[in-house]
């Protein structure tokens, strides 16, 4: 199979492959790069991405190393096309996401812009980045609330997702967690149905979301690695064609995780077994029988947590705990550039410090008054001139005093370091409940273990 660009993007951009255009720090645009169609060769440039930073024909972004900066092109709108909407790029206001909505125009389809030639123009630029789960989370089309990077990185670590693991996920939603989890478990594409490679079994009961997600998985070449099923897991459980996916780890982002939990047992839950029936009979567990299984449920309300924990206890889950990720991104910058220096009174003066600036002004005025009151040598300087020259005189005075008293400090231009929290960081706060279901241990397991690692006599 063609390898997913999320897993092995290669060194350069490729036609038909997903790329993430970074228009500004937080404004990302996922696109599929298209080659100019042969039909229009020598006439149309092909698809063009129009942004406030300029026009970017796909052809200028193809076969370049990932991470390349792409300069805007002058796109000739010609008599048949419309004029480019936006004027010169204003890099100073790059974070203005509202205004920054790009338009992608496929000229071959719409003939909106008749382009003879794209001429390099260095006034605007963007970067072309390889798709990663983190960038996808920031740029994917939202169909639901999504799990953000600070949460899923911690979750994947806690449920011990690693290359070769099998994960059950429900519901799939917008696929944010799916992309992160498939990268965590990826260790090659399976060559047959029996081939045990890292895999994600994802479930979604909303039909439209299921279809959109299915298409996305195909577009991202993740079909063989993510098995998406259209199902209500509260009623239908997690088996695939009656067989166990043998999951090592589970992630539930559902409104009622406690309704899904009975399907994630090793044995038929007692309350589902008929009287006198062996709870293990006629029941297939979706879990890996040879490993302890790790689970995480993701719920916004504490009431949901309570019900989930209660169901987990009844069903034999252990090591239950709850975590809330309170992620804070700190933005550290220097204050506005300032000029600080020490006066003859040893005061550090900064233009940002009003009180000290006033003190400094008072000093200057004082000197000006003194100077004006002094008998003039040549009678040339009146009070006005004294006022004008006040600053200069004060500086000379400062120099003199600092030579005598504290050494005059070299002015420096660095502002103070300021650290601010970024309140707008996206993280959907939810409570994460973690638990472990130990593996079952039979007489045969014990005998096999003893044969392998004899102990005692
Ligand atoms: N984790 C996803 C992501 O990162 O994009 C978001 C999941 S979204 C919050 C919850 C999803 O669960 C919704 O798409 C909803 O349709 C689905 N869902 C709710 N109940 C379900 C059920 N009983 N069976 C399967 N899916 C269900």
What does the model show?
By secondary structure, this protein is an alpha+beta fold. The chain folds into three domains: about 20-130, no CATH class; about 135-330 and about 430-450, Rossmann fold; about 335-420, no CATH class. It has helices at about 105-110, 135-140, 150-160, 175-185, 205-220, 235, 255-260, 300-315, 355-375, 385-405, 445-450, and strands spanning about 20-25, 25-30, 45-50, 55, 70-75, 105, 120-130, 165-170, 200-205, 225-230, 250, 295-300, 320-325, 330-335, 340, 350, 415-420, 430-435. The strands form five sheets. The protein has a seven-stranded mixed β-sheet, with helices on both faces. It has a four-stranded antiparallel β-sheet with strand order 2-1-7-5, covered by helices on one side. The model is unreliable at about 75-120, about 380-385 and about 405-410 (pLDDT under 50). The protein has eleven helices and 18 strands. A hairpin with a 2-residue loop joins strand 3 and strand 4 (about 55). The structure holds S-adenosylmethionine. S-adenosylmethionine binds next to helix 4, strand 9 and helix 6.
Summarize the structure.
This protein has 457 residues and is α+β, with helices and mostly antiparallel strands.
């Amino acid at each position: 199979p063609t390898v997913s660009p999320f897993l092995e993007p290669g060194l350069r951009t490729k036609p038909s492959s997903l790329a993430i255009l970074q228009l500004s720090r937080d404004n990302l645009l996922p696109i599929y790069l298209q080659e100019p169609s042969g039909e229009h060769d020598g006439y149309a440039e092909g698809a063009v991405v129009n942004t406030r930073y300029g026009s970017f024909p796909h052809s200028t972004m193809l076969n370049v190393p990932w991470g390349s900066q792409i300069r805007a092109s002058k796109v000739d709108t010609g008599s048949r096309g419309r004029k480019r909407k936006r004027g010169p790029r204003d890099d100073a206001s790059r974070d203005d996401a509202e205004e920054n909505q790009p338009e992608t125009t496929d000229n071959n389809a719409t003939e909106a812009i008749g382009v003879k030639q794209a001429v390099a123009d260095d006034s605007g630029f963007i970067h072309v980045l390889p798709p990663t789960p983190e960038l996808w989370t920031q740029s994917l089309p939202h169909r639901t609330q999504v799990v953000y990077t600070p949460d899923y990185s911690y979750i994947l670590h806690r449920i011990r997702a690693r290359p070769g693991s099998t994960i059950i996920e429900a519901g799939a939603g917008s696929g944010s967690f799916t992309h992160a989890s498939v990268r965590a478990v990826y260790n090659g594409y399976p060559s047959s149905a029996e081939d045990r490679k890292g895999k994600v079994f994802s479930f979604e009961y909303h039909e439209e979301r299921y279809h959109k997600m299915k298409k996305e998985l195909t577009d991202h070449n993740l079909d063989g690695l993510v098995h998406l099923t259209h199902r209500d897991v509260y009623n239908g459980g997690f088996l695939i064609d009656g067989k166990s996916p043998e999951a090592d780890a589970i992630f539930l982002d559902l409104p009622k995780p406690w309704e899904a939990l009975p399907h994630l047992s090793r044995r038929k839950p007692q309350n589902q077994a008929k009287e006198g029936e062996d709870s293990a009979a006629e029941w297939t567990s979706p879990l890996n029988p040879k490993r302890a299984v790790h689970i995480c449920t993701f719920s916004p309300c504490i009431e949901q947590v309570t019900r989930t924990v209660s169901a987990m206890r009844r069903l034999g889950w252990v090591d239950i705990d709850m975590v809330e990720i309170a992620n804070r991104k700190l933005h550290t910058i220097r204050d506005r550039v300032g000029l600080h220096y020490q006066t003859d009174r040893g005061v550090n003066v900064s233009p940002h410090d009003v009180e000290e600036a006033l003190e400094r002004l008072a000093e200057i005025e004082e000197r000006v008054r003194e100077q004006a009151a002094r008998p003039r040598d040549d009678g040339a300087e009146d009070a006005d001139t004294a006022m004008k020259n006040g600053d200069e005189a004060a500086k000379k005075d400062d120099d003199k005093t600092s030579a005598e008293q504290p050494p005059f400090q070299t002015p420096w231009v660095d502002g103070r370091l300021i650290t601010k929290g970024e309140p707008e960081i996206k993280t959907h706060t939810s409570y994460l409940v973690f638990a472990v279901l130990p593996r079952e241990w039979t007489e045969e397991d014990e005998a096999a273990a003893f044969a392998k690692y004899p102990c005692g006599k």
